[in-house]
C-alpha cells in the first residue's frame, strides 16, 4: 500500500494483515510507542470532525510522533493556493498526510502530487478508514457476516460496500429511491455479495449488524428539510433491530442524531457498539500509519 485513498485499490490480504497488526498494536501498545519517533502527520481538514481528528492526533502521539492539525480555511488553500503545490510542500516537511476533503478528485490530486503516504479521512465519495474500522470491529465481536446499512448511499455506504466485497461479507444497502449508491461503485462490486434495496426490512433480514449514518451529510445543510422528509421510514428503531438476527449489533460511524436516523433506545441500548467503533478508529489508523510509513 502506497496510500489509503480508495478500498478498491487495497487487496484482501492487505486488509487481513492490517487487522492482524491492529490486534497486535491494541494488545501490546508499548511495543509500538516509538515507531513514529520524530515523525509527523499533517491532518488537513476542509470539513468538521470529532473522531477523525482526535483519533489520528492521539494515535500519532501514542506512536511517538506528532500530528499537526491543519485547517483548510486558515491556510493559503482558502486563498487559491493549488492543492498540488500544497501536497508537494507538505511532502518536504511531513512523513504522512491525512486529509478530509469535499471533492474526491482533490484527494486524488493530493495523492498524485505527494512523495509521502496520503490517507483519506473522508471525501463526499468515500470514507475508507471508517469502513476498515467497522469491519475490524465486527471481526473482533465475531459478527463479520451480514451488514445492513440503512440510510444515504454516499461515502460511508460506498466504503462499506467496497470493504465488504474485499472481505467476502454479505452487505445490503437500503436507501430511499434516488439515494442509491454511486453506479460506478455498484458496478465495481457487482461480483460480490452486495445488494441494494429501497426496503430497510428486506436489508436487515438475517443481518448480524445494522448500520446507520446521518441523514444530512456535511455540506448538505441547505437541503436539510428535504432530506429529512425523504428519509421517512429509514430510522433505525427497535422494531427494525428486532427484524435482524437476535444477536445483531447496532453500528453508527457517528455523529449520531437521536430521533432522526436512529432512536435513543437503539443508539444507547444493549446492542449498540458505537463507542467501540469510535475507539477502534484509533487502533486501526495506528496500524494504517505504521504500515504506510514504516513498511
Ligand atoms: N465518523 C467520523 O468520521 O467522525 P468525525 O466526523 O467526527 O471525524
Ligand atoms: N455521511 C457522513 C459521514 C460522517 C462521518 C457525512 O459525510 O457527513
TrEMBL record:
L-ornithine binds at residues 155, 213, 217-218. Its EC number is 2.1.3.3. GO terms for biological process: citrulline biosynthetic process; L-arginine biosynthetic process via ornithine. Carbamoyl phosphate binds at residues 49-52, 76, 100, 127-130, 253-254, 281. SUPFAM superfamilies: Aspartate/ornithine carbamoyltransferase. Pfam families: OTCace (PF00185), OTCace_N (PF02729). Residues 146-291 form the Aspartate/ornithine carbamoyltransferase Asp/Orn-binding domain. Its main location: cytoplasm. One of its GO terms (molecular function) is ornithine carbamoyltransferase activity. This is Ornithine carbamoyltransferase.
Amino acid at each position: 500500500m502506497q496510500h489509503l485513498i480508495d478500498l478498491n485499490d487495497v487487496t484482501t490480504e492487505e486488509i487481513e494483515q492490517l487487522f492482524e497488526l491492529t490486534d497486535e498494536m491494541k494488545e501490546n501498545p508499548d511495543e509500538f510507542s516509538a515507531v513514529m519517533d520524530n515523525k509527523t502527520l499533517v491532518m488537513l481538514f476542509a470539513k468538521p470532525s470529532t473522531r477523525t481528528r482526535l483519533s489520528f492526533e492521539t494515535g500519532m502521539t501514542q506512536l511517538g510522533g506528532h500530528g499537526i492539525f491543519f485547517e483548510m480555511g486558515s491556510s493559503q488553500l482558502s486563498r487559491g493556493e493549488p492543492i498540488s503545490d500544497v501536497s508537494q510542500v507538505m511532502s518536504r516537511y511531513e512523513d504522512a498526510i491525512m486529509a478530509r476533503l469535499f471533492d474526491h478528485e482533490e484527494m486524488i490530486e493530493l495523492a498524485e502530487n505527494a512523495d509521502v503516504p496520503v490517507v483519506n479521512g473522508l471525501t463526499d465519495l468515500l470514507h475508507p478508514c471508517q469502513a476498515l474500522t467497522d469491519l475490524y470491529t465486527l471481526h473482533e465481536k465475531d459478527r463479520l457476516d451480514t451488514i445492513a446499512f440503512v440510510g444515504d448511499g454516499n461515502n460511508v455506504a460506498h466504503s462499506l460496500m467496497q470493504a465488504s466485497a474485499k472481505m467476502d461479507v454479505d452487505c445490503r444497502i437500503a436507501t430511499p429511491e434516488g439515494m442509491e449508491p454511486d453506479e460506478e461503485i455498484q458496478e465495481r462490486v457487482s461480483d460480490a455479495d452486495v445488494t441494494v434495496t429501497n426496503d430497510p426490512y428486506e436489508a436487515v433480514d438475517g443481518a448480524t449488524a445494522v448500520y446507520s449514518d446521518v441523514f444530512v451529510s456535511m455540506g448538505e445543510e441547505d437541503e436539510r428539510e428535504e432530506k429529512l422528509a425523504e428519509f421517512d421510514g429509514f430510522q433505525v428503531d427497535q422494531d427494525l433491530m428486532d427484524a435482524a438476527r437476535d444477536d445483531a449489533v447496532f453500528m453508527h460511524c457517528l455523529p449520531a442524531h437521536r430521533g432522526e436516523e436512529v432512536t435513543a433506545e437503539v443508539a444507547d441500548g444493549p446492542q449498540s457498539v458505537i463507542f467501540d467503533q469510535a475507539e477502534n478508529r484509533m487502533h486501526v489508523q495506528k496500524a494504517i500509519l505504521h504500515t504506510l510509513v514504516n513498511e
